[in-house]
Amino acid sequence: MPADTLLTAVRNYLKLGPTHSCIMEPITKGASGRTIIRLKPEGYPTYIGIHYTLDRKDNANYLPVSQFLKNAGFNVPEVIYDNTGRRVALVEDLGDADLLSMKDEPWEVREPIYRSALEQLDKLFYTRPPKDLEFQPAFDEAMYRWEQNYFYDQLADEYLGMNPAVVDELSEHPALIQMAKDLGASSRNLVHRDFQSQNIIAHDGKAWLIDFQGMRRGRQEYDLASLVYDPYMNHSAEDRQKLLDLWEEVSEEEPIAPILQKCAAQRLMQAMGAFAKIGRQPQQEWYLQHIPTAAAILRDVIAGSNLEEPLLPVLDEIETL
Question: Theoretical Cys-Cys bridge with 154: which of 144, 177, 227, 273, CB 3.0 to 4.6 Å?
Fold first, then answer.
C-alpha cells in the first residue's frame, strides 16, 4: 500500500527502528492521482510523503521539474529524499496555509502572497531550463482543442446529459477553433499549468509553488488567468482588477486584453471539465459545487464576444440544475 511504502521511506531515511512512533495524516485535497501524506516521526521535523503511479505521465516529471525550479531560485519545497524505483519522495513540509485557506482574509493580508506569487510567475517567463529537461507536451493548437473537447465531453455530455448532436455542433464552433489557433500560435515560455489558489502555499510571508509536475511551454497569460479567474476563490470584480494592477506593477507590462480573455475562457473550460469528471468519482463530490461558480465567471468573461454562441447553451443548462 502507498502509505506503508511512505512509512518505510521515512524510517529508512531517518534510520528509525520499527517501533519508533510516526503519525500519518492523509492530505486529501487535489486530484493528481498521487497519495500525499504528512509524516510526523516522533522527535523529528514533519515531512510530506508523496507516492505516485505512472498512470498520469506528468507524475514522473515532479522530481526533475522540482530540481530545476529549486536550482533556478524559485520558492518550491525541497525534496529531501526520493526513490524513483519505488516512486516515493519526502519533501519539505510548508504547512497548510494555501491561498484558498486565506479566502476570507482582507486584501491587505492576501496582497503580499499574491505579489510573491506573481513575482514567481514573472520570473518563470525569463527562466531558461536545461536543454535535456523534458516537460509535458506544449500548449499548441491541438492541446487547446483537446481542453475544449474535454469541457464538452465531461461537462456537457457526461455530467449534464445534453443532446450529443448539439454538443458536437457546439464543440466545432468556428469561434472555438479560432481561439485555439490564436492561443496556440505562441508557446515560447514555461507555464505552471495549474496556477491556482490550492497550489500556492503561504510560508514565511512568501508564496511557494507546489503541484508543478504539469509544467510545459505555453502562454504566460494562461497562468495569469488561472489565478485571477480562479473558481475556488471566486474573486470579486474589484479583487480581479487589484490582481491585474498588481501584475502590471510586478511585470511592468499590461496584459493584452483579448489574449487574457481567451486564456481565461480556455482555462475555465478546462477547469469545469475537470470538476465534472473528478466530481463524479467516489468521495470527490466536493468538486461539483464549483461548477456553477466557474460557469458564472465564464459567463462574465465571454460577455459580448463571439464565444457566447458555443458556450451559453452549456452555461444555461448548468443554471437549470
Answer: 273
Q: How far apart are CA 130 and CA 134, in angstroms?
A: 9
The span from the CA of 63 to the CA of 82, in Å, is 8
Domains, the chain, ordered by start = 2-92 (3.30.200.20), 100-319 (3.90.1200.10)
C-alpha cell at 138: 506544449
Grid coordinates representing 252 are 511592468
Tens digit of pLDDT for each residue in 197-210? 999 999 999 999 99
- The Cα–Cα gap between 219 and 267 comes to 12
Nearby residues of 175 by Cβ (< 8 Å), 6 or more positions away: 305, 306, 307, 309, 310
Q: What is the spatial distance between Cα 51 and Cα 159, in angstroms, rounded to a whole number?
A: 30
Residue range 36-59: mean pLDDT, rounded: 92
- Report the 3 state secondary structure along 265-305: HHHHHHHHHHHHHHHCCCCCHHHHHHHHHHHHHHHHHHCCC
Question: Distance (Å, rounded) from C-alpha 270 to C-alpha 247?
Answer: 23
Q: Pairing relation of β-strands 47-51 and 88-92? A: antiparallel
* C-alpha count within 13 angstroms, C-beta hemisphere, residue 225: 27
Give the ranges where the chain is alpha helix by DSSP (H).
2-14, 62-71, 107-126, 141-150, 164-171, 174-184, 220-228, 237-251, 257-279, 290-302, 308-319
Residue 57: what pLDDT?
Answer: 82
**d(Cα 101, Cα 230) in Å, to the nearest integer?**
14
* Residue 313 cell numbers, joined: 447553451
Q: What is the mean pLDDT of residues 172-178?
A: 98
Task: Of 321, 22, 63, give the one whose Cα is nearest residue 212.
Answer: 63
